[in-house]
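Continuing from the previous page...

OK, I double-checked the sequence for Carbohydrate ABC transporter membrane protein 1, CUT1 family against my notes and this is the correct one:
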Amino acid sequence: MATAETRRLTAPDRLRRSLSNGRVSAALILLPPALILFTLFVMLPLGESVWYSFFSWNGYGTPTDYVGLENYQRIAGHSVFHTAVGNTLKIVAISILLQMPLALLLALLIYRKTPTNAVFRLIFFVPYILAEVAAGLIWSFVFDGNYGVTASIAQSLGTESFFILADRDWAFVAVMTVIVWKYFGFHMMIYIAALQSVPEDLIEAARIEGAKRRQIVRYVQIPHIKPAIIVSAFFAIIGALQVFDIIIPLTNGGPSNQTHTIVTYLYTFGLTRLNIGFGSAVGVILFIAAITVAVFYQRFFMQRGQA
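Thanks. Re-ran it with the corrected sequence; updated structure tokens here:
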């Protein structure tokens, strides 16, 4: 009888029954604010950036000087943009090949819940808590060849001061050093949380079977934290595409535009020079790159990691 009664329900009755269970009503209440915020702060600015990228515009008034794809052609032929893309790829590489292994190594050493390990976790995590601008200013003093730590070291060794941030070959090495120092603690905490979730029974069973420490790490712990490693790599790649706040106080893209990333390139050649159309074109390219990486990574890595 209940089934027949359900079948006789009209569409409005079924809608009212759905509303009564709270699912649709919750969606109707929570979804519109999220859609409004997403539209106002993501979709509209993105659409405006695409529109402005077809104009030569300084940001004042209404853009009228339509140039088509000229901004994109200028970007493609600009050697500094090529340098910025190369530097961004270097940050991706150093994040995956150095920063993540360093974070994993430290996580394996201090993941157990002891007071001493808690102190070390706090020490290693402090750089990530610092604001990027503050970290950049601190390290700009460290690398200062006149008054910084490097100057003191050179003086104590009786050698001439070395201005790292003014050297075309070493400036970006210094930038990457700061990036590794700043963010390895974030990845370390991801790995620590994952390692603490590995069942101790498995580790103990491996020990009973005669497995050594290195074998336990390789065959027991790392396979269990593979999803965390995949997520960590995703954050490292997306973060590399967004590096900006550290470089500005360190080198401001110099010397000779050798330390620009895509975002600092946008800021320097777009915003500070009032080439808003040009900067918008760079922003569109960056957005497409970020979306492509996110979709590709989700499709080929995260789904396989969950399988």
